[in-house]
Structures are given as structure tokens and as C-alpha cells.
Design a protein that fits this description.
By secondary structure, the chain is of the alpha+beta class. The chain has seven helices and five strands; from the N terminus they run H-H-E-E-E-H-H-E-E-H-H-H.
Length: 167
């Protein structure tokens, strides 16, 4: 995934401690031990308009999902579509986590967090959520493009620690 950038190409500041506290509160509220886990049926729903999204090329892949370029025909904008992998789709607990992640991200409002627009079932693909399509380099690309010595001498380590501390 690429880091979000504003119009000038700069990355926004990392989420604040308030955002971290909000996330912790939301996790307790939505999935606290006293309340149980979220109900899968309330989180997943059929895509009302099955032709709404056009799926493009691969952007990235992780253990749980694959991210594709997409286009939201209803809103007329490019999006990123995070689609759950088929082997994870068959596991109800993983499916709950996937939609829980979408809901948490959708509730957050920070320039360093990519907004989530929609979630549901994408015909031919399965469970998905759509989010803002951002451009830029991945952390892996940034680290690979710089030698270890250059990175160590630069502002890199300190800036990464500040980002990780905020998250």
C-alpha cells in the first residue's frame, strides 16, 4: 500500500495519540470481552449495485486480502478495492475481522488514514471494501531505494520512530 499524500506530494503527519486512544476505545466498544465479537450478518451485505465497481490491476497483496485498482462507476472516481482472499473468506472469524477493519477505518478521520467508502460483496470476487486510491511509494520501496548507510545517516530512522510511536 502506498502512503497517502496531499496535493503537494507531501505525506501528512501521522495519527495523533488522540486517534490511537479513539481506536482503542472503538476496539473496546465494538469487540470488548463483555460484548462479544461483532455479528457477521450486520457487517456483511450484498452489493446493492453489482455493476458499480470495475476491477483493474493488482496494487498489493497481504496474508488476508488483495488490493486492486478499481473504478467506482456510481461516483465516477478511482478507488482501491481490498478483496478478501478465498481461503480466508471461508473462515467466519476472519471475515468478521475483515469487515471490522473496514468499519474501524471508516470511522476514522485523519489525513494519514485512507478513507473507506463502501463494503460488501463484489460479484466474482467476494468480500471487499473500497477506499480512496492514493499514489506514492510503499515503505518497502522507500527502504529498498536507500542504502542502509544512507538511511542510518538520514532523518529516516527518527522519522519512522515518530510515525510508529503515533500509531
Amino acid at each position: 500500500m502506498t502512503p497517502p499524500q496531499d496535493e503537494s506530494g507531501r505525506r501528512p503527519p501521522p495519527p495523533s495519540k488522540d486517534d490511537a486512544e479513539r481506536l482503542a476505545y472503538m476496539e473496546t466498544r465494538h469487540m470488548g470481552p463483555d460484548e462479544g465479537s461483532p455479528d457477521e450478518e450486520s457487517d456483511a451485505f450484498a452489493c446493492v449495485d453489482p455493476g458499480r465497481y470495475r476491477v483493474g490491476g493488482l496494487l498489493g497483496e497481504g496474508g488476508m486480502a488483495t488490493v486492486y485498482e478499481g473504478y467506482d462507476t456510481k461516483m465516477g472516481r478511482p478507488v482501491a478495492l481490498k478483496v478478501m482472499k478465498a481461503d480466508m473468506e471461508s473462515r467466519p472469524q476472519m471475515r468478521q475481522r475483515f469487515f471490522y477493519e473496514a468499519r474501524l477505518l471508516g470511522d476514522m478521520d485523519h489525513p494519514g488514514i485512507v478513507p473507506v467508502f463502501d463494503k460488501g460483496e463484489l460479484p466474482g470476487y467476494g468480500s471487499f471494501y473500497s477506499m480512496k486510491r492514493v499514489h506514492g511509494r510503499t515503505l518497502r520501496e522507500i527502504l529498498r531505494s536507500t542504502s542502509r548507510r544512507e538511511f542510518a545517516r538520514s532523518e529516516g530512522p527518527a522519522s519512522l520512530l515518530r510515525v510508529f510511536d503515533k500509531v
